[in-house]
Write a structure and sequence with these properties.
The complex is a heterodimer. Chain A is α/β, with parallel strands linked by helices. Chain A contains 11 helices and 14 strands. The longest helix of chain A is centred in the N-terminal third of the chain and has 15 residues. The N and C termini of chain A lie far apart (about 45 Å). Chain B is an alpha/beta fold. Chain B has a 6-stranded parallel sheet, sandwiched between helices. Chain B is globular. Classes of the chains: A alpha/beta, B alpha/beta. At the A-B interface, helix 3 and helix 4 of A face strand 2, helix 5 and helix 6 of B. The structure holds thiamine diphosphate. Thiamine diphosphate (TPP) binds next to loops of chain B. The site of thiamine diphosphate (TPP) has 14 residues of chain B, from loops.
């Protein structure tokens, strides 16, 4: 057992897999000598050398194109896109090339690759370095989308993503990089498509993702003091989506609150709300409520950014108001 | 099953006869594809390589079976030239279940991994970085495979071209980039919207590469340049960028009669048609009229057979629809 930060967990997860499988290679901007702009890849160059851990030019299309070409010819690349906002400059490679090619070729090709990226706000970086893009990725057929919320899950889900034969978008909430927890020694491998129930309650179910998970837990603690007993589910994986766990936990309390960092429209909670209304409508005791970032670009100033992203306080007031109305 | 069009090295007369056969097969296939559009049997769009056959045939002749082709939506010729049989290619155009991808890809996405045809890509420039990735994989695994990536003259002004060229150069990747300069994008002349006269060759120096222009309507010249660039890549000498000048005989795609092109220009290039030109050369080099006729008859029969077989193919079944989004063969996104 050792205390590990979220950022250290990234390097540990990648290293665990690279030791096991020579076909895993890692490329991206500043990932090698510099250890990553968020220091998430420290030590990998030293351990695995410059042939397997390669710094690239600032060429996001080349990075992801190279990952795709390598994946279709037998390697298992991990590519880093420094900030998830930058997906916009290489989205063609992700959406049109990587995601579609297996289907278009009638299964002739597979793309065992992972694209990891620093996602979301909270660091006062302004609109072009802060967006939560999980909803961009979720809407693309052919992509798996994983968003861990703590160091342990980072290692296990990273290992699962690398071992998965399909392309996985692995989004790391930047605001969580310095969060810490105790992590067991030895190999850790998790399962994609499994949500985790973090807290069991009887009145309402809060479903959260990534950086919103610790906030949902803290909000649930406060709500408990107010007499509202909440279940908290960490979605962890948007595709595949663990609807079995989600529907069971939502049915059990009869109330669903989603806590989402993505801007409002077409956020993942909208899809979940639609599944819930189609499949367990008669188990609901009240309206589904989505707690999201409003439909705006994120502002830079700390005061403004804090107003935009769902806060513990906003979760508490939204849930308590709705439960008491 | 119709015969394949792959050819051995065209350094002697027999090889050259094969190269003639290969070019002719591409020509007659494309003409048949066009006829089938007119019969409304080919749906959607399609981009023919009529007039550009020498490039596909010349390069394929210089490649090993383990090398990789990356093509654009104008990819019928590149696919066939690597030895993919005509029937599945034509059936793919017809949307039949015996198509190369059982109808799931269509004319613009022909792929046959088995033959090293690693996809045809319809987003301009996108496949250049992907070819870099295949080349990187060959370099990493220490195989001596080479990736050859074909694209049009209009593709040199998109970012992916420049990202890929720089990337290939700094990592010394075994990749050969081939710009088929047919002078036109869709309806606009490339020179009207390009800062340099030779769209690819004039960019080469920006990536520390040699500026290479070859007559893309001369299969022997193409073969020679291709063999040199591929050998260089194979030996660790890094990438090359080759500009092959050529002309498309028809419009950009099925819907385009190509009327925007001056008659004199079309006439000039029809006179440089690579196939009659190659035929004449073969006669000079000692081939007999009889030998050539025999090849022509065989190829025509191949195309007829492929047409029959493709037309006889079934309609793809509903079972294909939800198949192969994921490596497990399925498409499920939830449990
Ligand atoms: C990114 C992108 N922009 C535009 C198009 C539409 N488009 C398809 S082909 C084409 C012309 C390409 O010309 P060129 O690269 O010279 O190739 P050619 O068709 O002559 O082989 C255009 C503009 C596209 N497919 N992708």
């Amino acid at each position: 057992m050792a205390q590990l930060t979220f950022r250290e967990a990234i390097a540990r997860g990648i290293a665990q897999e690279m030791r096991r499988d020579e076909s895993i290679v890692f490329l991206g901007e500043d990932i090698g000598a510099a250890g990553g702009v968020f220091k998430g890849t420290v030590g990998l160059l030293e351990e695995f050398g410059g042939v397997r851990v390669r710094d690239t030019p600032i060429s996001e299309q080349a990075i992801l194109g190279a990952a795709m070409g390598a994946a279709m010819t037998g390697l298992k690349p991990i590519a880093e896109i420094m900030f998830a906002d930058f997906f916009a400059v290489c989205w063609d490679i992700v959406v049109n090339e990587i995601a579609k090619s297996r289907y278009m070729t009638n299964g002739q090709m597979t793309f065992p690759l992972v694209i990891r990226s620093g996602n979301g706000g909270g660091l006062r970086f302004g609109a072009q370095h802060s967006q939560s893009v999980e909803n961009w990725a979720m809407m693309v057929p052919g992509l798996k989308v994983v968003v861990p919320s703590n160091a342990l899950d980072v290692i296990g889900l990273m290992a699962a993503a690398i071992r998965d034969p399909d392309p996985v978008i692995f989004l790391e909430a930047k605001v969580l990089y310095s969060s810490k927890m105790d992590v067991p020694d030895g190999e850790i491998v998790d399962t994609l498509g499994s949500a985790k129930v973090l807290r069991q309650g009887s009145d309402a179910t809060l479903v959260a993702l990534g950086a919103m998970v610790p906030k949902a837990i803290a909000a649930a603690d406060e709500l408990a003091e107010m007499g509202i007993d909440c279940t908290v589910v960490d979605v962890r994986s948007l595709v595949p989506l663990d609807t079995t766990t989600l529907l069971r936990e939502i049915s059990a309390t009869g109330r669903l609150f989603t806590v989402e960092e993505n801007p409002r429209l077409c956020g993942w909670g909208g899809e979940l709300a639609s599944i819930v209304s189609e499949e367990i409508f008669y188990d609901l005791d009240g309206p589904i409520v989505r707690i999201t970032t409003p439909h705006i670009p994120l502002p830079a100033a700390d005061a403004l950014e804090d107003m935009a992203i769902p806060s513990i306080e906003r979760i508490v007031t939204t849930v308590s108001k709705s439960m008491n109305s | 099953m119709s015969t394949t069009t792959t050819v051995p090295n065209p350094t002697d007369l027999e090889g050259k006869l094969n190269l003639y056969r290969s070019q002719l097969a591409l020509r007659l296939f494309e003409q048949r594809a066009y006829d089938l559009f007119l019969e409304n049997l080919v749906k959607g769009t399609s981009h023919l390589s009529l007039g550009q056959e020498a490039i596909a045939a010349g390069f394929a002749a210089a490649m090993r079976p383990t090398d990789w082709t990356f093509a654009t939506y104008r990819g019928h010729a590149h696919t066939l030239a690597r030895g993919v049989p005509m029937t599945p290619v034509l059936a793919e155009l017809l949307g039949r279940s015996n198509g190369l991808m059982a109808g799931k890809g269509g004319s613009m996405h022909l792929t046959s991994v088995e033959h090293g045809v690693m996809g045809s890509y319809a987003i301009i420039g996108a496949h250049l970085p992907i070819a870099c990735g295949a080349a990187w994989s060959a370099q990493y695994r220490g195989t001596d495979q080479v990736a050859v990536c074909f694209f049009g003259d209009g593709s040199v002004n998109i970012g992916a071209f420049h990202e890929a060229l720089n990337f290939a150069a700094i990592w010394k990747l075994p990749v050969v980039f081939v710009c088929e300069n047919n002078l036109w994008m869709e309806y606009t002349r490339t020179s009207e919207v390009t800062a340099v006269a030779n769209p690819a060759a004039d960019r080469a120096s920006a990536y520390g590469l040699e500026s290479i222009i070859v007559d893309g309507n001369d299969a022997d010249a193409v073969y020679e340049i291709a063999a040199a660039a591929i050998a260089r890549a194979r030996e660790g000498g890094g990438p090359s960028l080759i500009e092959a000048t050529t002309y498309r005989h028809g419009g950009h795609s099925r819907a385009d009669p190509g009327k925007y092109r001056p008659d004199a220009e079309v006439a000039e290039w029809l006179a440089k048609d690579p196939i009659p030109r190659y035929r004449a050369r073969l006669l000079e080099k000692g081939a007999t009229e009889e030998q050539l006729r025999e090849i022509e008859e065989l190829v025509a029969a191949d195309v007829d057979l492929a047409t029959e077989e493709a037309k006889a193919g079934g309609v793809p079944g509903e079972d294909l629809l939800m198949k192969d989004v994921w490596a497990d063969g399925g498409s499920s996104w939830r449990n």
